Amino acid sequence: MRKFGCLLFAFMLMGCEVKKFEVPLLIYDMQDAYMFDFEQKIQQAKDDAFILTTVDGQNSQIIQNEDIDKWINAKVPLLIINPVDRLSVYSIIEKAKKSGTKIIFFNREPLAQDMALYDSVYYVGADAAESARIQAEIIMELFGNDPQLNKFDKNSDGIIQAVILKGEQGHQDAEARTKVVVETLIQAGYIVEVLDISIANFDRQTGKTAMDGLIATHGQNIEVVISNNDAMALGAIESLMEKGYFIDTDKNGKIDRDSEVWIPVVGIDGLDFAMEQIDAGYLYGTVFNDSQNMAEAIVELANLLINGEDVSNLSFTITNGKYIWISYKKITNQ
Ligand code: BGC
After folding, report:
1. Where would I find the H helices in 188-258?
2. How does pLDDT run across 310-320, given as a tens digit for each residue?
3. Which strand ranges, in their side-by-side order, compose the sheet holding 160-166?
4. In sequence order, what are the residues at sequence separation of 6 or more whose Cβ sits closer than 8 angstroms to the Cβ of residue 300?
5. Which atom of ligand 1 is nearest to the CA of 268?
6. Angle at which helices 172-187 and 128-142 cross, to 10°
7. Is the CB of 32 under 6 A from ligand 1?
8. Structural domain boundaries of the chain?
9. Fold assignment, 128-288
10. pLDDT tens across the length of the chain (334 residues)
């Protein structure tokens, strides 16, 4: 009886409420346009099952590591991590394994050998090579789906003269997108001359500065600007507008591709600001990096992991017991 009374008292104190778990959502850098949008999508996809606290790593692995230590010490059941340096997550995984904390990594993919260190570590992302193949398809469409090329071969030499804006060095997306977009075009029979590759860290302002430099060196020789993401593509467009590569002659805020001066720029991500630029005729095309579906996959997986349920119950396909891959989609206004 005494035992029952205590139990009743304990329930009354708790107001019979079930305690919710708090889970940190560690973002590598909230200044990153794509991650800023992605974070909102994850927060929106979340239901009431747990509390999700966003933590900004400010592009510093040192800061993020300190945060991770803090959350592990607070005994959270799960860490959702967008790592600053995807190549140095070894120590994070080791610590989490020791304390039994589960991990979902996303967007910045750890090395396979690090993923193999611990059973309760997962990755939600997209296959970078796929985004590059779709971006190459957009470029092929631009040139009339014909390796002999069309009027967009400005100097009529049968070769695509391209410049590439590359994202952060070492990021799986920057490396694969840069390589595979060119490989795909070559495999399809196109001849490509990459005039230059400029690293602009996935950032709009850096993209603009990089494009200023590319124009200074290669100017009118550039036939297409291939950007690893939309933010850099829009930075490039700003630079190209300033230098007369886009001229909105009738000043209606849009580029009419049949009568006004323009140059093809292609991006990846499909963020809202990029879609507006596609509608306005400035951005030629982009590839949708589906953060909405990734956000839903992360939240669903988090719920299963927190409740100790089997991940095979997931409504998304899980590959090798650890990976959830979300497909990219092509976007142009052709
Ligand atoms: C996106 C970039 C973003 C990066 C952050 C990539 O998948 O395409 O826009 O900066 O992820 O890690």
Report:
1. 204-218, 230-242
2. 999 999 999 99
3. 192-199, 160-166, 224-227, 265-266, 285-288, 329-332
4. 314, 315, 316
5. 8
6. 40
7. yes
8. 22-126+291-329, 128-288
9. Rossmann fold (3.40.50)
10. 344 444 444 444 444 455 688 999 999 999 999 999 999 999 999 988 899 999 999 999 999 999 999 999 999 999 999 999 999 999 999 999 999 999 999 999 999 999 999 999 999 999 999 999 999 999 999 999 999 999 999 999 999 999 999 999 999 999 999 999 999 999 999 999 999 999 999 999 999 999 999 999 999 999 999 999 999 999 999 999 999 999 999 999 999 999 999 999 999 999 999 999 999 999 999 999 999 999 999 999 999 999 999 999 999 999 999 999 999 999 877 6
Does ligand 1 have an atom closer than 6 angstroms to the CB of 173?
yes
Q: Matching CATH topology for 22-126+291-329 and 128-288?
A: yes
CATH superfamily of 22-126+291-329: Response regulator (3.40.50.2300)
Could you tell me the pTM of the whole model?
0.93
As to burial, measured by CB atoms within 10 angstroms (0-12 exposed, 13-18 middle, 19+ buried), residue 274 is: buried
Task: Return the best residue to mutate from 289, 292, 293, 294 for the ligand 1 pocket (most ligand atoms within 8 A of CB).
Answer: 289
Residues recorded for the chain: 334
Q: What is the 80 CA–ligand 1 centroid distance (Å)?
A: 17
CB 124 near ligand 1, within 6 Å: no
